[in-house]
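Limitations

Structures in this collection are predictions, not experimental determinations, and the ligand pose is part of the prediction. Treat each record accordingly. The example that follows, with guanosine-5'-triphosphate as the small molecule, is included so readers can see exactly what is and is not provided: the inputs are given verbatim, and the output is the predicted complex.
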Amino acid sequence: SSPKGRIDFENVTFAYEGAGGDPVLKNVTFSCLPGETVGIIGSTGAGKSTLISLVPRFYDTISGTVKVDGVDVKELDPALLRNRIGIVPQKTILFSGTISDNLRYGLASATQEEIEQAAVMAEAHPFIATFPEGYATRLGQKGVNLSGGQKQRLSIARALIRRPDILILDDCTSALDTATETRIKESLKQYAQGVTCLMIAQRISSVMDADKIIVLDDGEVVGVGTHDTLMASCRVYVEIFQS
Ligand code: GTP
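Predicted complex:
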């Protein structure tokens, strides 16, 4: 079968309803090829989270088209579309239950082996293995206390368990030290080969090695390219780099 996970934004304009109609995204155009890692950089409020929310069609565009594998998302069954997309939100939400329950997150069919594989990919396995009860360790009110970075790694594992074609990371590595972040990215490259990855980041260092980086400024794409290209051509990118 042909590789999956291509994303195309074609002249996408979007505004939240009742927000005075002011567009949050203006004429956004870019493509992610299957298996590419694409970074999204921009100041706070630039529209990064809004942009990624249009891939699983959480909202409809005002004009322009979002396509997954060449098909307008409006033509796709939303449940099937969302099944193919793993999203790791900015804020990790864990519930009272075991680590396994939290990783499975309703995916009853996931085997212990699949759970562990996902945890290995997300660099969560090593710390889980230090708990006496391992994957049966309880989280939540009466459970163990995890660090922000450990929670983020569980959240990434939760998304990977579903074997998505597209993985969206919404600034979810900010609580990780650079070394852990690098290990997760290397592990994703190795194990999640062929998965298209859209990655919002605060730090340029998080997306420096991406296949391409999209620079958003006040809802507009002001640069698309590799780190080196953008350093040489995109003022906003250089400003973020220097800040
Ligand atoms: P950070 O997460 O702070 O880095 O920002 P971002 O680049 O992800 O921007 P985001 O897409 O979250 O927001 C862009 C603009 O849309 C901002 O002006 C937000 O206030 C606005 N916005 C975001 N979510 C909503 C929403 O659910 N409703 C409305 N009305 N406005 C929203």
